Amino acid sequence: MSLWLLNHFSTFTLAVITVGGTVVLAVAGSVLLRRRYPSLAQGEHNDMVGVTLGMFGAIYGIILAFVIVTLWTQVEETQTIVASEATDTALIARDAAAFPPPVHARLDSALSGYVHAVVEDQWPRMREGNPSYAATETHLRAAYQALQAYDPKDEREQVFYEQAVGHLDDVATQRRARITMARQELPALLQVLAFGGALVLIPLTFLYGLRKRRVQMLFVASVAALVGFSLLLVVVLDRPFAGDLDVSPTPYREGALAQYWVK
Known about the structure:
about 75% helix
C-alpha cells in the first residue's frame, strides 16, 4: 500500500492527505464528542486524562522516534551502498585502462551494460518493490569472465588486475545489499504500534476538557498535526527507492561512468 501511494502521489500531496486528513478528522471527532457530552468542557476529569495522555504520549513518542530514526538510518545506509557500488564500478573502469585493448574492450562492454541495466531495468523494479538479480547478472558475469580469462603479463598489470578483481567482488556484494534494502519494509508489529498508537493517542485529546472551544480545537489540531507529520515520515522513509525522496541512481551516471552514457 505504501509503495502504491509513494509511486502515485507527490510528497506534498501525501502531506496534505496525511497531516490535513488527520487534523480534520481529529477536530471533527472532538466537536462531535463535545456536542454529545457537553459536560466534558467543564474539565472534571482533566487530572486523570492529563496523566494518561502524558504517559501514553511519552511512550508513543519514543516508539515513533525509534521508528523514524531507524528508517532514516536505513535510507542513509542505502545511499552509502549505492555510492560505493558506483564508485567500485568506476574504479574497475579506470583499472581496465592498464589492460590490453581486447580485455579493456570486453570489460568496458560489460560495465556499460551493467550500469545501464542498474539504472534502466533494476531501478524501476526496485521502485515497485520487486527487484531482480537477473537484470544485471549477465553483465556482471561477463565482467568476471573477462578478468578470469586474462593472465597479467607483468607486475604493473598484476597490480591493476588484483585491484579490478577486488572491486568487482565489492560490486557483487553491494548489489546484493542494495537489492536487500529494496525488499525491506517496516515490520508489521512496528506498523501496528505506529499507526495504531495514533488511533489511541488522538482520541484521548478529545477527553481533555477546556471551556473555550477554540482553545480545545487548537489543542486537538496541534497534537493531530504532529502525529500526522510523524506518520508521513514513516511512510516516506519506509521505502528508500520509491517516492520523491527516493535514493537516486545518479552516481551510476557520474565520474568515470559518464562515458557509458555518451551517445
